[in-house]
Write a structure and sequence with these properties.
single chain; alpha+beta; seven-stranded mixed beta sheet; four-stranded antiparallel beta sheet; 36% helix
Length: 273
């Protein structure tokens, strides 16, 4: 009996180690979505908030999302389910919640701040926004994305960088079985990746960025698309577009196009067929 145990224990240990290695490298749904949507980085100084580093530019496809200025301590939430946008409760409830935080955060004393607490912005179809946070709650079958308005894209003056939180609600028990690509398709029904080149910050920089973007677009149209070893999934999608199929095998990810198959190992192109 001791001899059999002596043989079996190392075998079980080896299987457990290999299994642990494989599962440890498998990306979660939140990690996969974060890899597809680059988050915007915001900063502030004496003049207020501004975009420090642009994220993935998204276009609002349906109305119903209500936002508030970025510096507000509160945030409005909209729920998207079965193709319908449901806005959060009235501003009075949001303000009431904020009032409870005034004494802790000391941000309700000045008239400007008080005015901002009641200011709301209804995002319209066509508005451009950046994602600033992504959260996945499998137990609630929810994917939440916080968005910030691209004021230079929307020509908002003065800039407020209105923000809002959008909760994508899936059917009970469905999210854990849904592939990342299908989740992205659902998000895209409301917040689609924009085809417009991202604008630079500031007036002259914005015009220069648009001119440069137009030149780059013409060059891309005239030059053949190419994929090289070591490219990331984002870089491949920028060159080839969204794949027809995605196969996620933990550390290995496969993009399937009409006449092409791209294999990634640990987030980098390792093979093209």
């Amino acid at each position: 009996m001791r001899q059999r145990l002596g043989v079996l224990i190392p075998a079980f240990a080896a299987v457990a180690f290999l299994a642990a290695q494989g599962y440890a490298q498998a990306p979660t749904l939140e990690e996969q979505l974060s890899a597809q949507y680059k988050l915007v980085k915001m900063g502030s100084d004496s003049s207020g908030y501004s975009v420090v580093e642009e994220g993935t530019l998204l276009e609002v496809k349906k109305g119903g999302i209500i936002g508030v200025p970025y510096k507000n301590v509160s945030i409005r939430t909209a729920t998207y389910q079965d193709g319908t946008v449901k806005a959060s409760d009235a501003a009075g409830k949001v303000t009431k919640v904020t009032d409870k935080l005034c004494g802790v955060l000391h941000k309700c004393a000045t008239p400007d701040t008080a005015k901002d607490e009641t200011a709301t912005k209804l995002f319209k179809a066509g508005d451009k926004v950046y994602p600033s946070k992504i959260e996945v709650q499998l137990d609630k079958d929810q994917v939440a994305m916080t968005i910030v308005a691209c004021d230079t894209c929307n020509q908002t003056d003065p800039p407020t960088y209105n923000k809002a939180k959008v909760v994508f609600q899936f059917q009970k028990g469905a999210l854990a079985k849904t592939a990342a690509a299908d989740v992205e398709d659902t998000i895209g029904q409301l917040l689609a990746v924009s085809d417009t080149s991202q604008s630079a910050q500031g007036g002259d920089q914005q015009q220069g960025g648009q001119q440069q973007g137009g030149q780059q677009q013409q060059q891309q149209q005239s030059e053949p698309q190419s994929i090289s070893m070591g490219m990331t999934p984002d870089q491949v999608q920028a060159a080839m577009g969204k794949p027809e199929k995605m196969v996620n095998l933990g550390p290995k990810l496969i993009y399937v196009y009409k006449d092409l198959k791209v294999t990634f190992i640990n987030g980098r192109v390792a093979d093209v067929q």
